[in-house]
Protein 1
Amino acid sequence: MSGFQVTTLGQFIIERQSEIPGVKGEFSRLLRDIGIAAKIISREVNKAGLAEILGETGNENVQGEDVKKLDIIANTLMIDCLSKGGECCAVASEEDEHIIPITTPQAKDAKYVVMMDPLDGSSNIDVNVSIGTIFSIFERVTPLGSTPTEADFFQPGNKCLAAGYMIYGTSTMLVYTTGNGVNGFTLDPSIGEFCLSHPNIVTPKTGKIYSVNEGNKADFPAGLNTYIDWCQQIDKDTNRPYSSRYIGSMVADVHRNLLKGGIFIYPMTTKKPKGKLRLLYECNPMAFIIEQAGGRATNGYGKRILDLVPTELHERSPILMGSEEMVLQLEGMLERETQAQ
Ligand code: AHM
Ligand code: MG
């Protein structure tokens, strides 16, 4: 990458500001604040093994999961960065049971709310495997200047103004959309800037990767098992067998499939009838990005993820997302098996 041709995230955000109807400088500033948080979290993640911040805090989060120290560090860093700017009036986080109103004087008239999973892929933190951060931005629905409420967060994903993720992998990337396509930026540590490396990402219409935790096969819907069997059959015409790839960090699994073509599945199971992933800050932002890249994201039962209307902050949804043809095919198999029952 030549120094003269680099477009930084900050430059890109300003250049594209006019494409988003009704938004002004505050929105761009909010995105840039998230970009700053991303750099700081990346720094912390990269030194994790050295800094004695691996391991568990000994506490559980609201969903009964062990909280890793880095989860808390990332959560605090994001909230700090969002509080400083004055554009965000409240945050919903995987790590906090309730919404967090931002009470700084500069946030008094803030227009936006942010939903986030500060560190996704928790089980991979301590073993040096890719993890991520997920965020989305909505305009509040309650009056400006009033105390934000859960109503500001119970908006369907189709009202989302911007969504993105950071992936801490072989390099750190920030990928985001404001509803005009998807762009990816790679952190260049030598200049400390996210640089546009993956402009206008378009996901292939089909692929040969399926990503699902097959350890749960005994609890899967029959239609999903039919699909997995189909993926594993040999057929030269349709490029099968497909490859099974599952990291266990949704951001990393979805990022790979976004670039290469594939399907990511976290289904309903008999043990988890609503699946595992959280609608507000895991499913919706990733679904928005996938759709913006030309892919498809549904709950597998006739509903587009972005049209689901949330009623709880930490509610879950089954999700299928990725290359359009693959998602459609699995949906067809799920539907046929349901009808046959
Ligand atoms: P987390 O937010 O606690 O890390 O949980 C979400 C993660 C996803 O990144 C990943 O796709 C999934 O949980 C893996 O779950 P499982 O181990 O059940 O396959
Ligand atoms: Mg998560």
Note: The two ends are 56 Å apart (CA to CA).
Protein 2
Amino acid sequence: MKDSPRQRKRYEKDLAKKNAKVRGAARGKGDARQGRVTEDNWEQLLSQHGRRSGPDNDAALDAPSLQHATGTGEPDGIVISVSSGRCRVVFEGKDIVAMVPPEMAVRQKSLLAVGDRVLLDHEDDVWRLRGVLPRHSVLARPDPNNPHLQRLIAANLDVVIHVVSVKAPPLRPRLIDRFWIAIQRGGAQPVLCVNKIDLLEPREREEELAKLIPYRDLGLPVIATSTQTGEGLDQMRALVQGKTAALVGHSGVGKSSILNALDTQLELMTNTLHRRGTGRHTTTASSLYDFGDGTYLIDTPGIREFGLWDLDRRTLRDYFPELVEANELCRFTDCTHVHEPDCEVKDRVESGVIDRARYETYVRLYDDLEQ
Ligand code: GDP
Ligand code: ZN
């Protein structure tokens, strides 16, 4: 992406601000140099980055500028895309390609992501990545080849927008739960976007959106958008203003189209025959785009399903607040709400107070997870 010098300046300023926040978080946790990824500590780092950001972490994020607190005071860059053995980084206003050290490259998908703040070395005209600064949030999913390892989709996100569509592909509320849990676990603010709303007649629209009322009632912000009519785009702009946000969801729901609609200069290829007639395009890796005014948006590859990384049966309940509330009235205080008698959750499902589809997702996930 070509940025004007003014844009670059702004970018650097924003980056400095955000990095100060990240460093603040690091200081709250002790040694910022923990953020350096080495052969010895990568496993430990993975487990740290997979956690949800708790209140402690949030407080640390509000710390004032802490240039010297890292003990490095070095300038760092932001990763805008990652490919095998190398990554593109915006560093001191320049868009550069940096080599990823071999010990990191072997586990690159778990160790480096778009949005990462990185330290660099420059020697003999070659840029090399030296370390990754601590992250304040991630979006991750289990590695298909090793479910105990997480694959990073993006890092340092404030907001993650889960995009779904109506009609093509149709709205399937059951798919929302896993995305919602994965986003919360990574520490970013979740939002649900229902795109292609133009495809519905008023009556259908009411019926479809009614399916999402349980989510809205549980506190998940829901916005309806159309890249055709422009509906909801102002709301979306307001929501991501000044933030780093990622769009996730199945392929074909309109993620690239939304990014294009938000910034007409972006011209991402969308999943139609595009101008040059080279065929259909699908995003295969995450990329970060500068939308100006401190807003950075990340397009991610289509994700079919979010396997849940490192979740156990007990913690699963935390992501179903409607169950936690009912739990007090179950006969057993440690009721799992799956097979026990006198279970308030099951009663509430029967009487329609708790959404049946959500409960069924809970039971399905419960069955899938290890004790
Ligand atoms: P992505 O794979 O999620 O990035 O989806 P794309 O942005 O490539 O869009 C997939 C298809 O949906 C394209 O043919 C778009 O033109 C179409 N599309 C995207 N947004 C809308 C919308 O709001 N309304 C309608 N009717 N079609 C849309
Ligand atoms: Zn119960």
Note: The chain has four domains: 5-57, 63-132, 149-299, 313-368.
